């Protein structure tokens, strides 16, 4: 097999790995959890609005919730994705993905103990997941048949992944104004792909399969603080360590069909969030968050996008990312609350690494959010939110091992997303 063919085969893996769906606006991580938090752009590090947003971004705020609470959220994520490519003597083409809708669940629970200064909480979140379905397309070089069948591509691409987190936390009121919370973060993830380019090549120049995998466990921790300055201003900060996963192990076959086991080192990044809230206007709450996502701390995601001597790829080349979120909540009537939000995120990777991120190009810059809640009674509230990830594209050249970028070639991803979230909050 030629180096060109090996690279084209590897694209099947690249265009399958880590497509953490439109759900993930900030690299791997969802920018918000639950319908209320979604409606405000996820900007709730500095205040308590309801339990899902607090447990997602800063459990130190749960002491400010008036009652115990259970909350449920369910998201439907639709990705509008296009992959186009051009290759010398093979022409150019463009193909739309047929991924469909991806579901993402969220659950939270907050309980105030008999000690008025101590509260406990639990969050169970789908923090990322993907499903990609790109059909074979003879008119699009990268999705054309393999070289042995007269094309220069890999055919159709179909893969999926899921990442969940379970985050219990203990929140303690240190003073009348200051609270602190801490707890472990338990991760659970599974990634299945067609071609495992993070593993060494087989003797015949092919990559092993990457679909023989189980769910893998990870562990991290978080620490948060919340300070109430006065009746108008609140501030919060939260640190989430990287979630260090056990090596992702894959059972595959070598060139002769005999079993081989491969492993990949994948971690989720450290996240530092700071937020403030202003309650100085009657019936209005204003919030703002700023976030740092340390992908340089995350093995696999932040490792250089480069080939090794054995044909394997180091990583995806993701950069540290900054995000800004702002939100507003307005009490419209006694029972109806309206919400608006906006999220901005910095560039996730350089254009020169587009080739290695054909299906993990989740780089967006702007995401407006809208939401509302209806209070059915004193104990039950239903909510809904809509987020639109404004279209963003990334383009670079083919990159072949040993040859570098190929003049006259290109790969381009165009990505937009729609997220509909519904939720239920039950207070008791």
CATH class: Mainly Beta
Write the CATH homologous superfamily: Outer membrane protein transport protein (OMPP1/FadL/TodX)
Overall average residue pLDDT: 87
Cα gyration radius (Å):
23 Å
Query: How widely separated are the two ends?
Result: 65 Å
Beta percentage is over 45%
Helix content: under 10%
CATH topology: Porin
Strand order, main sheet: write it out: 1-3-4-5-6-7-8-13-14-15-16-17-18-21
- Low-pLDDT stretches are 1-25
Describe this structure in words.
This protein is elongated. The protein has a 14-stranded antiparallel β-barrel with strand order 1-3-4-5-6-7-8-13-14-15-16-17-18-21. It has a two-stranded antiparallel sheet with strand order 10-11. Helix content is 6%, strand content 51%. The chain has one domain: Beta Barrel (Porin), CATH 2.40.160.60. With 428 residues, it is mainly β.
């Amino acid at each position: 097999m030629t180096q060109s063919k090996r690279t084209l085969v590897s694209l099947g893996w690249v265009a399958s790995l880590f497509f953490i769906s439109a759900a993930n606006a900030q690299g791997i991580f969802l920018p918000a959890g639950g319908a209320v938090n979604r409606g405000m752009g996820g900007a709730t590090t500095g205040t308590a609005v309801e339990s899902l947003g607090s447990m997602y971004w800063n459990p130190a705020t749960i002491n400010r919730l008036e009652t115990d609470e259970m909350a449920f959220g369910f998201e439907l994520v639709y990705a509008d994705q296009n992959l186009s490519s051009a290759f010398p003597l093979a022409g150019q083409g463009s193909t739309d993905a047929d991924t469909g809708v991806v579901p993402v669940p969220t659950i939270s629970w907050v309980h105030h103990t008999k000690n008025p200064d101590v509260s406990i909480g639990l969050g169970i979140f789908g923090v990322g997941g993907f499903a990609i379905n790109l059909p074979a397309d003879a008119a699009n070089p990268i999705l054309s048949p393999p070289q042995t069948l007269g094309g220069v591509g890999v055919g159709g691409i179909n893969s999926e992944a899921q990442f969940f987190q379970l985050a219990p936390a203990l929140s303690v009121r240190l003073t009348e104004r200051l609270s602190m919370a801490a707890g472990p973060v338990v991760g659970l993830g599974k990634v299945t792909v067609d071609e495992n380019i993070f593993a060494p090549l087989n003797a015949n120049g092919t990559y092993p399969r990457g679909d023989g995998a189980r769910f893998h466990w990870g562990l991290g921790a978080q620490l948060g603080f919340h300070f109430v300055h006065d009746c108008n201003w609140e501030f919060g900060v939260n640190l989430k360590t990287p979630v260090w996963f056990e090596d992702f192990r894959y059972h595959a076959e070598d060139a002769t069909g005999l079993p081989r086991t491969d492993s990949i080192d994948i971690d989720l990044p450290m996240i530092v969030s700071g937020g403030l809230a202003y309650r100085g206007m009657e019936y209005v709450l204003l919030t703002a968050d700023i976030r740092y996502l340390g992908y340089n701390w995350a093995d696999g995601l932040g490792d250089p996008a480069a080939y090794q001597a054995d044909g394997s790829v180091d990583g995806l080349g993701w950069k540290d990312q900054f995000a800004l979120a702002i939100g507003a909540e307005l009490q419209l009537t006694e029972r109806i609350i309206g919400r608006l939000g906006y999220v901005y995120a910095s560039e996730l990777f350089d254009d020169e690494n587009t080739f290695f991120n054909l299906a993990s190009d989740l780089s967006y810059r702007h995401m407006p959010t809208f939401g509302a809640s209806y209070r059915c009674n004193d104990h039950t509230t239903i909510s809904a939110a809509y987020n639109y990830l404004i279209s963003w594209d990334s383009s670079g050249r083919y990159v072949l091992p040993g040859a570098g970028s190929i003049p006259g070639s290109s790969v381009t991803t165009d990505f937009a997303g729609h997220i509909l979230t519904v939720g239920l909050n039950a207070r008791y």
